[in-house]
TrEMBL record:
UniProt lineage: Bacteria, Bacillati, Actinomycetota, Actinomycetes, Micromonosporales
InterPro entries: Glyco_hydro/deAcase_b/a-brl, NODB_dom, Polysacc_deacetylase_ArnD
Protein known as: Peptidoglycan/xylan/chitin deacetylase (PgdA/CDA1 family)
Cross-referenced SUPFAM superfamilies: Glycoside hydrolase/deacetylase (SSF88713)
Entry's Gene Ontology BP terms: carbohydrate metabolic process
Species annotation: Micromonospora taraxaci
Amino acid sequence: MAQDGRTAEGARGWGRRDLLRRGLLVAGGVAVGAGASELWWSTHRRAPLAGGPASATSGNRYQDVGTGRLEVVWSGPTQERLVALTFDDGPAPQWTPMVLDTLAQHRVPATFFLVGSQVRRHADVISDRLAGHEVGNHSWDHRDLAALDATEAYDDLRRSHDAIADVTGMPPRLLRPPYGHLGGAVLHAAARLDYRLVLWTLQMVEREFPHDPAGHARRIVADVRPGTIVLGHDVGASRRLVALRGLAEMINGLRARGYTFVTVSALLGAGVPPTPTR
């Protein structure tokens, strides 16, 4: 009993000392934590709550965010053999006419995610040539919008939006951010503009088929599934011409598999039940 009593008393003694020591540590930790928090805020004052790149909110006043909701899509919710071709980064005089000529020849609609500065610079390339096609916003000058704050991202997209609407007569309702990067500021800006945010299901893989347009076309045709959104480019490095030179074969190959070409908005509004996930 004596031993047990001493042990119990010792335990109580150590408990008091331990509590005192822990109390000092907690007090010191609070001070350190407060200092660290202040340091974090001073070095990251633009993110996340102050409207920086990571933030999907902006300030502490009422937020004007259109309908107050945002849809992000990678593919169409359909079991029908529908596919949407999309082309980014244009327009440009070298390649965009080639794409438009091929699409016109085969009577295929597509969605062009346009860069606002390119639209202003090369308005003549797309003037009167987008009937039956759809336009989307791909930023003003292809900066990474996910690295901008909320105001900068919105201003960039608004400037591009106005240029696209002015030149094409079609105000864009879709947004594809450069590189597919989705920072919080991008989401906030997209919501303010009432955009649908569109990424892609399948990207053209020109690097894998140097100098082989037919091989590249066969690869894309084999990989398409109902509701696929295909990403291509009508501007860029010369290697991308592999995809464009094989575009007709791609179209013919997909039609041979029973696919119908639609714009992205038509694909998303197909009115057919979603593909089961189980």
